[in-house]
Design goal:
The structure is a single chain. The protein has 267 residues and is α+β, with helices and mostly antiparallel strands. It folds into 2 domains: 116 residues, no CATH class; 130 residues, Sandwich (Jelly Rolls). The protein has 6 helices and 9 strands; from the N terminus they run αααααββββββββαβ. The strands form 2 sheets. Strands 1, 2, 4, 7 and 9 form a 5-stranded antiparallel beta sheet that branches. Helix 2 runs antiparallel to helix 3 and helix 2 packs across helix 5. The radius of gyration is 27 Å and the shape is elongated.
C-alpha cells in the first residue's frame, strides 16, 4: 500500500507545483508589467482629459475615441489586448497592486509637471520690464487634434513700451506627442507694421520643419539694431499624412515659452 500512497503523494505535490507555477506565470498574450504600468498611466491621464472636455463642451464620443486610440497606438497594443490583460491582472491582485503603486507615482509626477506648466496662464502677450522676460501667458501647451490634412495655430504678440530696438526673441517648445510619419513646422518671425499700407512686413524670420516627437526646439530671432519691430509672430503647422487612422490622433506640444531678451548695454 505504501507504494501507491507514495505515488499519490508525489502526484499531489506535482499538481500543486504546476498550479502554483500556472498562477504565477504570465501568459504570452498578457501585456508585461512595465508596459502595463506605462499604459495604465496614460489611460488614466486620457480619461481625465476626456472628462474635462465633456464638462466644458458638449459630449463628443468621437473625441474620446481619438484620444484613447492615440494611447493604444503609442504603446503598440490593441484595446482587446489591453482589456484581456486587465482581466488577467485583476485576477492576480498582488501584481496589480504592485503595478498601481508605480502608476500612482507616475500620475503624481505628471501632476507636478502640469502644475508647473500652468503657472504662466495669465494675460497672454503682456510685456514686463526686465532684461529677460517670458511673454507667453497662455496655457503652455497646445493640443492639435482636428482630423484635417493641414492644421495651423498662430499667435501674435504686440510690442509695447518695454520692448527695445535690437531685442532678441526666443521661442522654446517640447513636442510631447506626434503621430508617426507626420510633419510639424514651427516658425518664429518678427514683424513690422506698415501703417501706410496697412499690412505687416517680415522684419526677421526663421523656421524649422519635420520635427520629431519627444524633442525640444528653440527658435531665436535677433531684431535689427536700427529698426524696431512691432509684433512677434509664432506659428505651428501640423501636416497630416493621407492615412485616416493617423489623422485621428492628436499632436501635443507643451513647455511653451516666448522669451524677450534685451540687448546688452555697451559700456
Amino acid at each position: 500500500m505504501r507504494c501507491p500512497m507514495r505515488k499519490i503523494e508525489l502526484l499531489a505535490i506535482s499538481l500543486m507545483a504546476l498550479l502554483l507555477v500556472a498562477c504565477q506565470s504570465r501568459p504570452d498574450y498578457v501585456i508585461d508589467e512595465d508596459t502595463m504600468t506605462e499604459l495604465l498611466t496614460d489611460v488614466h491621464m486620457a480619461e481625465g482629459l476626456i472628462d474635462v472636455q465633456e464638462r466644458h463642451n458638449r459630449k463628443d464620443n468621437e473625441y474620446g475615441q481619438r484620444v484613447m486610440a492615440a494611447v493604444f497606438m503609442k504603446h503598440n497594443v490593441s484595446k482587446a489586448s489591453y482589456d484581456t490583460s486587465l482581466v488577467w491582472y485583476s485576477q492576480h491582485l498582488n501584481t496589480l497592486i504592485r503595478i498601481y503603486k508605480h502608476v500612482n507615482e507616475n500620475l503624481k509626477a505628471n501632476e507636478r509637471h502640469w502644475i508647473a506648466l500652468a503657472e504662466a496662464s495669465d494675460d497672454f502677450g503682456k510685456s514686463l520690464a526686465g532684461d529677460s522676460v517670458n511673454l507667453w501667458r497662455q496655457p503652455p501647451y497646445v493640443v492639435m487634434d482636428e482630423a484635417r490634412m493641414t492644421h495651423f495655430r498662430t499667435w501674435v504678440v504686440p510690442a509695447d513700451s518695454n520692448f527695445m530696438v535690437g531685442d532678441t526673441i526666443r521661442w522654446t517648445l517640447h513636442i510631447a506627442s506626434l503621430p508617426e510619419g507626420e510633419g510639424l513646422v514651427a516658425s518664429l518671425a518678427l514683424l513690422s507694421h506698415d501703417e501706410r499700407k496697412g499690412n505687416y512686413d517680415v522684419h526677421v524670420g526663421t523656421s524649422t520643419a519635420l520635427l520629431m516627437a519627444d524633442t525640444t526646439l528653440t527658435l531665436c530671432c535677433a531684431g535689427q539694431s536700427d529698426k524696431p519691430f512691432t509684433h512677434v509672430n509664432v506659428a505651428l503647422h501640423l501636416m497630416r499624412t493621407s492615412q485616416l487612422e493617423s489623422r485621428l490622433l492628436p499632436c501635443v506640444v507643451d513647455s511653451l515659452k516666448l522669451i524677450r531678451i534685451h540687448p546688452k548695454k555697451k559700456e
